[in-house]
Amino acid sequence: MQLLQPQALWLLGLVPVLILIHALRPKPRSLEVTNLFLWREAQRERQGGWGLSRFVRNLPLLLQILAVLLASLALARPTVARPARIGQDAVLVLDVSASMKAHGQAGGRFDLARKAALDLVDTLPRGRRMMVIEAGARPVVRLAYSQDRGRVRQAVESIRPTDAPGELKKSLELALSFLDPEQEGRVYLVSDGADRSVEDLVKGHPRVQLVLVAAGRKNVGLVRFEVRQTPTLQGEYQIMVEVMNFSPAPVLCPLLVEVDSETVAAETIGLKPREKKRLFFPYAGPIAHVAAAKLEIKDDFETDNRAWIVLNEAQDIWVLLVSPGNYFLETLLAAYPNLKVNAVREIAASSWREQTARHDVVILDRVSPPSTPPGSYLLIQAFSPNVPISGRGEVRQPRIVDWDEKSPLLAGLSLTGVNIESAVRAEAPRGLKPLVESRQTPLLFAYEKGDLRAVWLGFDLLRSDLPLKVAFPVLMGNILSWLHPDRFRVSMPSLTAGEPLVVRLLPGTQEFSIRRPSGLWIKQMASSNPFEYANTDEVGIYTVIEGESWRRFAVNLLNEAESDIQPVSYETPRQAEAAGPGPAPVQARAALWTLCLLLAAFSLLFEWLAWLREG
Amino acid sequence: MTATPEMAEFLDEEFLRKLEQLRMLARRGIKGPAKGEHRSWRSGGSLEFLDYRRYQAGDDFRYVDWNVYGRLDRLFLKLFQSEEDLTVHVLLDRSRSMGAGRPNKFLHAQRIAAALAYIALANLDRVGLYTFDDGLRAGRPPERGRQAYAGLIRDLVGLKPEGRTDVSACLSAYAQTVRRPGVVVILSDLMDPQGCEAGLSALAQRRFDVALIQVLDSEEIAPTASGLTTLREMETGQTRKLTLDPALLEAYRRRADEWLAGIRAACLKTGADYALAETRLPFEEFLLSYLSAGRIFGRKRG
Predict the structure, then answer these.
(1) Mutate to test the interface with A, among B231, B254, B259 (most CBs of A within 10 A)
(2) Which pTM was predicted?
């Protein structure tokens, strides 16, 4: 039996209280008698002995304790496992995340998962329906509810594992949304359990049944791969590789790093169990194509043995700084070797459009422009008619209370303790989410529409101590990188498998082609710009060909959770050990709280009757 | 007789008046319908002719009526009413359980014993008084004459209920120690799970005329207490907690009836006379009905 909310067992603390109350109840009066043998016989005749009498005398207390026990148990939401047999409609969620590609002596994980899923399909009784959901980077409904067992089997058999990390929680939530709340339908998740984000849901939701599969244990994987320019030296780069041993035994693993198909580094790394090593390799030379890291090892999971980065030579970025004077900003911009800054104090309205067109990034510091034509802008306490953010008065000493750590604009920085003397009280459309917020007003927005990209900062840098903080250069670097990613970075940011590939198309492009890592060419209509290509479920280099030009994007796994292929169990270690490798027997959990509550009610009823009888 | 306060309370004027009434009643009982044939005869000089019976082998030839033999040519023996004094043994249970009851059982038994002793002494019988609990205690050997009454009463008054009960052992011991059997009056509540049949049998074997008077309080036969109660046995100190509800009280009454029936059956089996003296009835009322039935002094003796 498993308790979904064991903290409810604290209610058992009421038991000593009950016993105390019973101990304090009126004592029996004493009566001297000339014999006990007649009483003993009478008692025996009536209730079958003194033992039963003692039991009957304490029956109210025992029943009260029983009621408390049962109520506590009911609140703890107990469940028991029983062999699964689909009784109602069911939703089958099949994990196709990267870790399902792991293989061991018993076979591939996905093959085992598919077999378990098909076994489950075979238990579908007549008249009951089953839905099939593929749980990859995004949940995909492979088959709507169907009573046709053959179609369900066909849908399961057509599913293939991907190289993308799973989003099992989303898939489970989607599956649960399809269950009829009036029926006892169930969601059967067939997975290796690598995505621990669903652990609470699996344990806590009585209608979710996990079927665990396990195969393979040995794995060494790449978990990080980056290339950056050495800050002080033009033309010199650093390649950073992070390798982790997920195996329970130490390994020696040969690592090969290549740039443009030429070997930059080759060495054998010794890794203890669960050890992660970060390695830096210097590189000087032209970079224009692809850097690759390869682990030359034969393990049980191959997807994470390769990683790629698309490189591009850092190019000069022309920046137009319109500011009445900002020492910190000017000093910072001058520190970037590939930034060419033109600083002006005011806007020449007549030539504004031409000026913006000649620069890659325009920074408007406390100077509002007449317009912001397509391009990249940083608006510091400035407003543009093209950016739907307006100011309504001033806020004194706003205190930063929240910022979006997941935004690339705020990656790797902390705004704790930043003091701002005053800020503009900003108003923005509801759909525009602020990235930095104070209690009184939002302080930072990122706006993107068509070819216009803008970052809006709601306070004067000179009236805050932000420029004195470490966060300032990081924030500016993030902003410049976001405004002009292609030129600002040495490497194109690689995508995680399953993450949509955003393709910025040239004006007038009607169609373009994408070449997948497997070599498959896919022709796409330019239905939007930028275009989001979602099928990045295969690791490797994707090539986008648009007319005469072509670009490349790297898609990697680089995900520790997926690379960690050690068998997991949401049960106790003993149960996990007993389960062994291979697909776990398909079992369903039956909720017992209603039964416990019913028994508690009966206990109280009997207690009342016993009290009446005694009284 | 020097009267102690206890004796003064015991032998008040009312009590003595009742004793005299009972004595008169007892006298009528003796000379009334009970006078008649004896199943056996006693030899002696002061015999009053009672009847004849056929000679049987082994009979004493001295009592053959030769005149009848001359007339009828058959041997008949002359039978005589014995004028020998009767010995009345009063055995009083003084165990702790006798101290229970409202009114007190022991006091009730004492008064019955005193009354019976008075009547017996008034009839010139010998009266002995012994007490027992789990063993036979020292008592007064049989004495005759009214002058013995004062000492007997003094002994009675000085008694206090104590000790546990072993009725059969005590009766058996008494049967073995007494030289001259007679009427033995046993006054006890018989609160002994072992019963009294063995003791009664021992007395019967010694040819005692046994009169068993069981003194009980009405609460012992039909208790009325209710609710959660700790029962404590007076003699052993053992306790039991139980809820006295109507069902349990009814079960107790049934058990008590069965127990009393068992005692009656034992008496019937051993030839003892049984009487139940409930304390709720004044002792003189009990004795009135008891003696008027001729159950002690009017009984035919063998």
Answers:
(1) B231
(2) 0.46
